[in-house]
Design a protein that fits this description.
Elements: E1 7-9, E2 12-14, H1 16-23, E3 32-33, E4 41-49, E5 62-64, H2 66-69, H3 72-79, E6 85-93, E7 97-102, H4 107-110, E8 113-120, E9 126-129, E10 132-134, E11 142-144, E12 150-154, E13 160-167, H5 171-178, E14 184-186, H6 209-219, H7 224-244, H8 251-265, H9 279-288, E15 314-317, H10 324-331, H11 345-349, H12 373-386, E16 403-405, H13 413-419, E17 424-429, H14 432-445, E18 449-451, E19 462-463, H15 478-498, E20 505-509, H16 510-515, H17 517-528, H18 559-580, E21 607-611, H19 613-622, E22 624-630, E23 635-642, E24 645-652, E25 659-662, E26 665-669, E27 673-679, H20 681-686, E28 695-704, E29 710-715, E30 721-725, E31 730-733, E32 741-744, E33 760-766, E34 769-775, E35 793-797, E36 803-808, E37 811-817, E38 820-825, E39 830-835, E40 840-846, E41 850-857, E42 860-866, H21 870-873, H22 877-881, E43 890-895, E44 900-909, E45 916-921, E46 926-928, H23 934-938
Parallel strand pairs: 2-14, 15-16, 15-17, 17-20, 28-46
Antiparallel strand pairs: 1-11, 3-4, 4-5, 4-6, 6-13, 7-12, 8-13, 9-10, 9-12, 18-19, 21-44, 22-23, 22-45, 23-24, 25-26, 26-27, 27-28, 29-30, 30-31, 31-32, 33-34, 34-35, 35-36, 37-38, 38-39, 39-40, 41-42, 42-43, 43-44
Helix pairs in contact: 6-7, 6-9, 7-8, 14-15, 14-18, 15-18
Length: 947
């Protein structure tokens, strides 16, 4: 709802400590992941449709969940607002995460406000709305303007939990907004059981003309042509309303009117409202999609109401964890399909009649008997409301080709076929051993819990598909539960596919998809008749549901469990293999060599990252990209903006450390060499897709230095590369005859020796000259700096040899920028400003990790963060401030004008440390090529011929 200002604090406050105690009672398995899959976001429903915590919909009768009944003080808090409440949840935001930036503009939000009561928070958590920002403190209560673009950023490791309640308001609530009542603390009263008013239904059966007129005024459509079209629709709707009201006699007429209006809206393009939202999309959200909801009517509904728009849909079906997300996300790149963006659990099970609770919790099985005309109508409406093209656009053609995948659909083929007789099915086959192994991982991770409160089940939280006969698995080992789950899902699926005409289904091979993605995808697209215009290379990007990076024999770490149960799944496995794939290799039991629980070969983690939307905005505003080095994982990471997201591209190097960039030159220091690159515009033009890359760095030379522990490197004004030679405690340059050329060392280092006496590590260039360096100690014996690594760090002036600042905790990355010296005090996780004349330091920002790697663009500092290995850096102040699991790895962005954290990019799994950060100014989408690249082998740079 639009408000008069971005934020309004209500005059009610609460006991956050008591609220936190009530929240703490809930087991982790009860928290539900965000419906759109936003990383780090989870919810625990308190008021939901039919009181079902698994139902995220806002359509239907709202009722308290069992979770709310367990929280007496939360009930009193909600009652104190004296307004009917809609969907209400506890919303949790993990540390180093964000609530993705968006605007709430659909019908539900046009007339409703969102109340926030912070329960667990951190002073660094900021709520951004429009151009304003605020920290909502624990125990306060707020509303905000949901019409404007808003976001929450949690830059620290601690979790944030808010009570979030939706309401259309009331007379008493309006007085709270106006501030007509005195501020008061609502304390817990053990003798009071308040009455919570709950909104019975947020959506009408048929929207009235009066409500439509109010909504149009809220939209404030200023485009004359679009406004005139809306007015003509309102006139037609008003005429129908006077003739039929909400009676079923008018429903088909209403539907026809909506279809005509929706089709006409497609003529309008590039029309936006004052909040930047597409005007046509918002008209659809406010007037078209919510206007007719016959299934909410209290009496019998009529026959098929929605004119069929989804034609020849494509359903990917398989047992869980077969790789269907990878296939789905790849085929979703087709220019001619529309997808709901992810799995359709809520779309399908949000219809009461299709939820397993309505079938006695028997299973997710649905058959043709469940495909009544009204169910078909409602399901198509729900899908059409969510479908979007590959670029995110929600403008739908008259006839829509839908691509969908949900593992539960392995039990629903007859139902889907009855709804869509023209549907295609693609069965994805994967080696049963690999699939069952991945299912075991999914259960153990608790990231795939589907029914946390499954009645009559006392085992681990039920995950993945609910198969017939699940009750008989009570008390059995997990591997037996999973074996039955895979076997039943696959058996039923194969039976159902065999009953279909042979030209309506095909088979995809997971192995072929991984090994030859282009060939496999082109074959499948040709079969179902959809377009394909991408060139794919192996390996494909990991799907968003990937737990660990795929490897052929990764299943072997579960080898003993799989061998114990494989006899019982063998008949179904043989049947599946007989149809679709090569025979699985001979089963191999876990050997002693594979027995360790974390074998590198078996558990190689994925190179994954998440980022705040503001990180992409920062890259866009400074027109730059980043290069990061991570010696621990052997990669240089190219960080670049790709539309409205940030892309991380990993290039393998041997322990990369310092990075230097100047003009068209790039240098990268590795374990025993320095690589010299040049930017080649001609190569950039040849990279697919053509015209996307604005720079391509091609290797030209390699200088072998030997293992001298090169740390930072930088070009001087004359183009010479200066190197911090940590092993020899010296600054050096390079020539063609030597490993290195010593140029300077601190005055307390008495000789050139490969002993890392002071751990010289950082270099600041000032006006093109090496001017300032950092070291971890002023010691002159081998490894002497280790004795006082927590407070022995120094900043040294190169010209005079004088130590400017002492007592630093593991300083790194000195940089001269905007006329000032900036420095990272890594042991404290901080960014400092240093007054070089006075030797005074000032802390600009504290960050959630070991700070190392610093670069600037505009008024932003890009700071590398590492998680820190305790065995190496134990005892430093950072390890006292943050536990290991609270420290992050990635790049944090700080506004140097005020020290505020404005964005971050966080790595997961494989990358745990960052060494250097380099900004590539005026380069927004670069490529970093290696010597094995075909482009490098087939492109030649030669001098211009002499005249």
């Amino acid at each position: 709802m639009r408000l008069r200002t971005e934020f309004i604090q209500l005059p009610l406050s609460f006991d956050a400590t008591r609220l936190a105690a009530e929240v703490a009672q809930f087991d982790e398995r009860l928290w539900r992941p965000h419906p759109e899959g936003h990383p780090g976001n989870a919810a625990l429903p308190l008021i939901a449709v039919d009181g079902d915590p698994a139902n995220d919909s806002v359509k239907g009768t709202m009722q308290p969940t069992a979770h709310l009944r367990a929280c007496p003080y939360l009930r009193q808090v909600l009652a104190s607002f004296s307004a009917p409440l809609g969907r209400t949840r506890l919303m949790r935001l993990d540390g180093n995460a964000e609530a993705t930036r968006h605007s709430d503009t659909n019908y539900y939000w046009m007339r409703r406000m969102r109340i926030h009561v912070p329960i667990v928070t951190d002073p660094a958590v900021m709520f951004h709305c429009g151009g304003a920002s605020v920290h909502m403190a624990a125990g306060e209560s707020w509303i905000f303007d949901t019409w404007k673009i808003h976001n929450v950023v949690n830059p620290n490791p601690t979790r944030r939990i808010h009570l979030v309640a939706d309401t259309a308001g009331s007379t008493q609530f309006s007085s709270l907004i106006r501030g007509d009542v005195e501020p008061r603390m609502v304390a817990f009263d053990e003798h009071t059981e308040p009455r919570i008013e709950i909104e019975p239904n947020a959506y009408p059966v048929v929207m009235s003309p009066d409500e439509q007129t109010t909504l149009v005024a809220l939209l404030d459509v200023r485009d004359r042509a679009l406004g005139a079209a809306v007015e003509r629709f309102l006139d037609e709707w008003r005429t129908l309303w006077h003739a039929h009201g909400e009676r079923r006699s008018g429903w088909t007429h209403y539907r026809a009117s909506l279809d005509r209006f929706d089709s006409m809206l497609s003529r309008f393009t590039n029309v936006t409202l004052d909040n930047g939202v597409d005007a046509v999309e918002l008209v659809r959200q406010a007037l078209v999609r919510p206007a007719l909801n016959p299934y909410l009517a209290p009496r019998e509904t009529p026959e098929f109401l929605v004119r069929r728009r989804i034609e020849r849909p494509v359903f990917i079906v398989s047992s869980p964890r077969s790789g269907s997300s990878l296939l789905f996300e790849t085929m979703a790149q087709s220019p001619t399909v529309f997808t709901p963006g992810g799995e359709s659990h809520v779309i399908i099970e949000g219809i009461d009649a299709l939820h397993p609770a309505q079938h006695g919790w028997d299973s997710n099985r649905l058959t043709a008997a469940d495909a009544t005309p009204i169910i078909a109508s409602v399901l198509e409406t729900r899908f059409l409301a969510e479908l979007r093209a590959r670029d995110g656009s929600r403008r739908l053609p008259t006839a829509v080709r839908m691509l969908e995948k949900t593992p539960k659909n392995s039990l629903r083929v007859p139902f889907l076929r009855a709804i869509h007789p023209d549907a295609f099915f693609i069965y994805l086959y994967r080696d049963p051993r690999a699939t069952i192994s991945s299912m075991l991982d999914a259960w153990a991770s608790r990231r795939f819990v589907t029914y946390p409160d499954l009645p009559e089940w006392d085992g681990p939280p039920w995950s993945l598909v609910l198969i017939p006969g699940w009750r008989e698995q009570r008390g059995r080992p997990l591997e037996e539960i999973v074996a039955h789950q895979w076997s039943e899902a696959t058996r039923i699926l194969l039976d159902d596919l065999e009953a279909l005409p042979p030209d309506s289904w095909s088979v995809a091979s997971y192995d072929a998809l991984v090994a030859e993605p282009q060939k496999e995808i082109e074959r499948l697209c040709a079969f179902v008749g959809i377009g394909w215009d991408h060139q794919l290379t192996a390996p494909l990007p990991l799907s968003r549901h990937t737990l660990t990076e795929p490897m052929p024999d990764k299943w072997r770490r579960h080898g003993e469990q799989i061998d114990r149960i494989f006899d019982r799944v063998q008949p179904i496995a043989d049947r599946a293999h007989e149809w679709f794939a090569r025979p699985p290799a001979q089963r191999v039991r876990v050997t002693n060599e594979l027995a360790p629980p974390f074998s590198t070969a078996e558990n190689a983690p994925a190179f994954r990252s998440v980022h705040t939307s503001s990180f992409t905005d920062v890259l866009r505003s400074v027109r730059a990209s980043l290069l990061l080095s991570t010696y621990q994982s052997g990669r240089v990471v190219v960080v670049r903006r790709d539309g409205d997201a940030t892309n991380t591209h990993f290039v393998a190097f041997d322990s990369p450390m310092g990075i230097a960039a100047s003009g068209n030159r790039l240098a990268i220091a590795t374990a025993g060499a320095v690589w010299d690159y040049r930017s080649s515009p001609a190569v950039a033009e040849r990279i697919e897709p053509r015209g996307r890359h604005d720079a391509a760095f091609v290797p030209r030379n390699t200088h072998v230095t030997g293992e001298i522990a090169v740390h930072e490197i930088a070009f001087d004004a004359g183009g010479a590369l200066w190197i911090v030679n940590t092993r020899f405690s010296t600054l050096c340059t390079l020539d063609v005859d030597h490993s290195f050329v010593p140029r300077w060392r601190p005055p307390f280092i008495t000789e050139l020796a490969p002993e890392d006496r002071c751990h010289l590590n950082g270099l600041a260039m000032v006006e093109g000259r090496p001017r300032l360096v950092t070291a971890l100690g002023e010691t002159n014996v081998q490894g002497g700096w280790r004795a006082d690594k927590t407070a022995g760090g120094v900043l040294i002036d190169v010209d005079s040899g004088m130590t400017i600042v002492r007592g630093l905790s593991m300083p790194h990355s000195p940089r001269w920028y905007a006329g000032k010296l900036w420095l990272l005090e890594s042991g404290k996780g901080s960014l400092l400003y240093v007054d070089t004349k006075e030797g005074r330091v000032e802390t600009v920002a504290l960050l959630p990790g070991f700070t190392r790697g610093l670069a600037f663009a505009g008024h932003y500092a890009f700071i590398g963060l590492s998680q820190v290995r305790e065995s190496v850096f134990d005892g430093i102040p950072l390890s006292r401030r943050l536990h290991l699991d609270e420290r992050a790895c990635g790049v944090w962005v700080v506004d140097i004008r005020n020290g505020t954290i404005v964005a971050f990019l966080k790595f997961e799994d494989a990358v745990q440390e960052i060494f250097d950060v380099q900004v590539l100014n005026d380069v927004e989408f670069p490529e970093l090529l290696d010597t094995q690249s075909d482009l490098v082998r087939t492109h030649f740079e030669v001098p211009a011929p002499r005249v």
